[in-house]
Amino acid sequence: MPGYVHLHNHSHFSLLDGACKIDALTTAAVENNMSALALTDHGNMFGAVQFYQAARKKDLKPIIGVEAYVAPGSRKERKSDKKISDTSYHLVLLAKNITGYRNLMCLVSIGYLEGFYYRPRVDKEVLEKYSEGIIALSACMKGEVPYYLLKRGYDAAKQSALDYREIFKDDYYLEIHNHGIEEEDQIREGLRELSNELSIPLVATNDTHYLKREHYLPHDVLICLQTGKDRDDPKRLRYTTDQIYFKSQSEMAKTFSEFQSALDITSEIAEKCNLELDFGTTYLPKFEIPADEGIDSLADYLKKLTYVGAKNRFGEITQEVDERLKHELNIINQMGYPGYFLIVMDFIRYAKSKGIPVGPGRGSAAGSLVSYCLEITNINPLQYNLIFERFLNPERVTMPDIDIDFCYERREEIIEYVKDKYGEENVTQIITFGTMAARAVIRDVGRVLKISYGDVDRIAKMIPPTPNMTLDKALEAVPDLKRLAEQDEYSQLIDYSKTLEGLARHASTHAAGVVITPDALTNYTPLYKSSQGDVTTQYDMKVLEDIGVLKMDFLGLRTLTVLDKTIKTLSKKGIKIELDKIPLEDKETYEMFAKGETVGIFQFESSGMRDYLRKLKPQVFEDLIAMNALYRPGPMEWIDDFIKRRRGKKKIEYLHPLMESVLKETYGIIVYQEQVMRIASELAGFSMGNADLLRRAMGKKKVELMAEQRSLFLEGCAKKNIEKKLANEIFDLMDKFSGYGFVKPHSTCYALIAFQTAYLKKYYPAEFMAATLSSEMGSTNRVVILIDECKRMGTPVEPPDVNESYFDFIVKGNGIRFGLGAVKNVGENTIKSIVTERGKNGRYKNIFEFCERNDSRLVNKKVLESLIQGGAMDSLEGHRAQKLQAVEIAVSFAQSSHAEKLKGQTSLFEGEGDDSIPYPDLPLLSPWKDSVALAYEKEILGFYVSGHPLRKFEEEVKAFSSTSLDALENLKDGTPVKVCGIVNESKNILDRKNKSMAFITLEDFLGSAEVIVFSSVYEKYREFLENDSMILITGRVSSREEENPKIICEEIVPLERVWEHCGKNLHLSVEQIGVDDPVLNKINILLKQNPGNCSLFINVKTDENSKETIKSKNVKVNPSPEVITQLRTLLGQNNVWMEA
């Protein structure tokens, strides 16, 4: 028979349904001697180009297709026909040529943008419109014709087949399956009859969802992940066959022995499909040169603007500047990118003209002097010795990347501008795919298999957290993991995980990526619409780059918003700050860095970074550039060495004298990727373009490529009389550092932003911290940390107040007033109404007047309750309990008052005259206890403002906590910890052995963390796990890459008993005179009545400035809360203290 071709195949881009990786799928086709292969994912073309490229590399003809969903009627109808069991039918579509490919892109885009109802659906109207160049197969049992044969009878199926043949003419085929499913037998016979009657050919396919038959069970796990169901749920979706694997030609021949022609026709269909995709063309949108410029050439216009900009930047254009600009412009023109630079310059100019903050630069683009002169970037590359070729060089085959940071609140305005300028149908955001990486897949599969959390967590953490780690690599590198994989209890977990590892799990919108095409997007990429309504490409960043369309990153950077708000606040006070003019030599700012006082400072605020800053004591801007580059996984191990060399405590050495000029600025350590390039240039004579190729080859770690580059490097070194052994040593050093060396232009730009934030924090602390708090309003943990920093700085943060607050945090006097935007259930329009009314008619006096003066549609009962509970109405008459009780009365009063006003019988603001409605009295109630008030604050604001429940145990927290909860992220997995906190939430569940365990949220003064209490520990300490319990937990850190760190609990002690359980030393301070003997006698009796294990120390003052400490040899005490209280009553609060 002619070679069989699989025409119905699902890759892992049939999300959580297909289990075939594209490379493995194409390899299987080659190994089975197939000449062609189709990809037909469910409703999308996510993997189409990747599939095309993978197939071409293997000399396999790629057939791009899709298994589309067809609506029963119009794609725009959203109600399911009661006569059918689903909202759509399946239909396999295959592209014959470029026209068919483009029509496929249009169809799947329409499915998401116009027809989505449970699935991305098209209808027969658009199928007819976009049918040219497309072959259609009737699909599986869920196809319309097969479904009708089963449910509506032969005549209905016949009419459906005729409808499709009318659309696709001779390119319509009836698809037969045989997966051992009973209904398929009936369908096959019906399709055979239709084929004979209507002369529509049959085609035999296998609905491939996984590669091998033994993958049936892992695929079943995948289906459980898709549906969120357990494997043993009898109602869940499951495939009733294990035959949907990639069958060999002989297996297909055996399966369809009665349908030889249906097998043969697969080759005929494949011969019809001859799609050629172009990967050698760049598609830039057209940039229109203003007509009054009188310039036709984009290159000439770019040159003009560049030199105008250079004059603005430098005044006099020096020979150095001129030569660098000519060099860069020559490469830009040679590579055909003048339009690219003009497009970027244009939208950045627009942003600046609208007052939208733009970052100084990002990535390697900041190494371009042309970018600096066009004001795309704001870092002079000559000043910081930055290399253009790291950004763009003739040897680079891909389009350059100019990534831009914008104010995160106004990023969308830039995207809208680009849409308006280049056409909405030509601009959209970019898709990205989350995949099941090694650790994540273990957790996913373990959950479906119901393996205990503790076991799954332990196994996942055996996998090294290094980039590109796989389960196979981990099994080879970690003997304990390999032993576990051989145990019956865990072998299934490891085997299934290996099968599913690397599969796409979900699609989402890339945080920054935007694509701009010369004409309709669907001529280049199909479109996708997320459940949140975001429209994106169906192709990811890499594919878009390969097909030659313009993509760039528009990033929303919170810090730019903070800088902007700070400067605007200062401007209102008559203080004018220009970021570009902040002196980068300011000693006071460097002192702040040297003290590690960098909470709230961009890129420099983690506790680990603050520790290193205290060691380094940076004095110049270059120190910050280097630290920003070094404080990352990999180079972090060199920070201590860098600091020692920087401070003269370790000798700086170079492998060769020529390396000194390159590495002098970083004290002999390779910190930046550009240094790898410069070493190649200085020692081996590489051009900068070739040096960039070397750097990228080192990054890819491809053996053949590396061998070729090593040979070239050694050859170049030999010309400079560098011995081969030393040259190899230098090459190995470069190779090691190239993997994690940082891009210097990027580090420079971000160090600049960091210095600007630090300068503002140093000289305008209240304004800066108010802006920072406003920007972090949605993050409870961040606000808690920032408020604590304000206290350290002596900048008090006052609670929200309807008479003082605005939406954002604001500066009030020497402190900061809380923003109403942080109060739960109070929307922006409500806040605007409250603030506007206050501005017009003055402060609010009581809750009744407050309601009377505001629109009841905005200020409703829920809003009032939240404002009261959050403390925002404390400046009004009465206490919180009274006002909360009066809410309904106040709402009714306001409604009556508004009704009277409408009748014209009274004025709202007549005062207390005879015609005004008197305000009701507040109910007579006792104030809340502090604990109740604080609990409400926590509920409404997300944190405590007027106090903290833990404050009464502050001494215990300081004594016994080994870390604060906000600093857990800096600790390694498995680190032993002691943490004090209050239980905010406790969730009890049953583990797989049917025993109780708990997940609790513990909070301290600076943050919160989840604590896992397994059953054995839970049984001992369950009484201490209620909400609001204040406890000391001993345990260890459980850290995952993809989640916040947790604590595995081992022991719990209530804080009120912590001293008697854990205290080691009790100190009593006694005056030499002034303490009566009866007092000492009482203390002696008290201590003897309460024996324990705690040592006793007596501190006797010998004179005003000194004391003598005596340790009791005979007395050991039980320092219970009752004993401590009595001792403090006798000696005074400050004369009794404990040590942990």
Tell me the strand percentage band.
5-15%
Percent helix among the residues? 40-55%
Q: Mean pLDDT across all residues, rounded?
A: 92
The level 1 CATH classification of the largest domain is: Alpha Beta
Low-confidence sequence ranges: 81-85, 907-914
Q: Describe the largest sheet.
A: 7 strands, mixed
- Give the second-level CATH assignment, the architecture of the largest domain: Alpha-Beta Barrel
How many domains, in number, for the residues? Answer: 7
Q: Label the overall shape.
A: globular
Rg over C-alpha atoms, rounded to the nearest angstrom: 36 Å
Question: Could you state the CATH homologous superfamily of the largest domain?
Answer: Metal-dependent hydrolases
Number of helices: 45
Stated plainly, the CATH topology of the largest domain is called: TIM Barrel
The SS-based structural class is alpha/beta
Per DSSP E runs of 2 or more residues, the count of β-strands stands at 25
Distance between the termini: 84 Å
